[in-house]
């Protein structure tokens, strides 16, 4: 009853006062209780969206290329730094090796200076050492053996010999050693041959006589021994 009254009142209104029903731009489709809405955007706008999507697709490879270029630059920088590091490491190793060689050379120089500081002094003593041998060789062997009749001469010989032994022992503590190479093989580096004589009972090249003993200071020859060498068969 109320609905009929409202309908009659509405129909009685002038046309200008009646509510206008605006038809929908798109029909509304009902499917299984769900509402499917159609796009109200014009087709032109949809075309612009497609173009923008294409532009996005085109822009994406450009961004990837930029990233790749940046990665390449970083790779080059890394390779350059790695090369510089290798060069610095090589220079450091060379510097360490040079320093170690310098240390060894310096130590050797200092040690040689210590070992051969007495070389000039030792050479000056050689003549005095030779005088001991000359004094001892001046006493005939038969008189030395006959101590009863030549006691004073025998005692003098013994005293000179004892002094020589003590003197040579003291010098040997400082590296100065007497070289008396009897029955040794001749070595031109440490011996000086003054004459050669055949000796049937000795091997050729053997030293059978020492004319003047040699001396070495810390294994360095400061005077070669003058010797007689057994001559070989020609």
Automatic annotation (TrEMBL):
Signal peptide: none annotated. The keyword Chaperone applies. Residues 54-63 have a biased composition (Basic and acidic residues). GO terms for cellular component: PAM complex, Tim23 associated import motor. Keywords: Chaperone, Mitochondrion. The keyword Mitochondrion applies. It is found in: Mitochondrion matrix. Gene3D superfamilies: 3.90.20.20, Head domain of nucleotide exchange factor GrpE. SUPFAM superfamilies: Coiled-coil domain of nucleotide exchange factor GrpE (SSF58014), Head domain of nucleotide exchange factor GrpE (SSF51064). GO terms for molecular function: adenyl-nucleotide exchange factor activity; protein homodimerization activity; protein-folding chaperone binding; unfolded protein binding. It comes from the Eukaryota. Residues 44-53 have a biased composition (Low complexity). Residues 41-73 are annotated as: Disordered. One of its GO terms (biological process) is protein import into mitochondrial matrix. Essential component of the PAM complex, a complex required for the translocation of transit peptide-containing proteins from the inner membrane into the mitochondrial matrix in an ATP-dependent manner. Belongs to the GrpE family. PANTHER family: GRPE PROTEIN, GRPE PROTEIN HOMOLOG, MITOCHONDRIAL. This is GrpE protein homolog. It comes from Trichomonascus ciferrii.
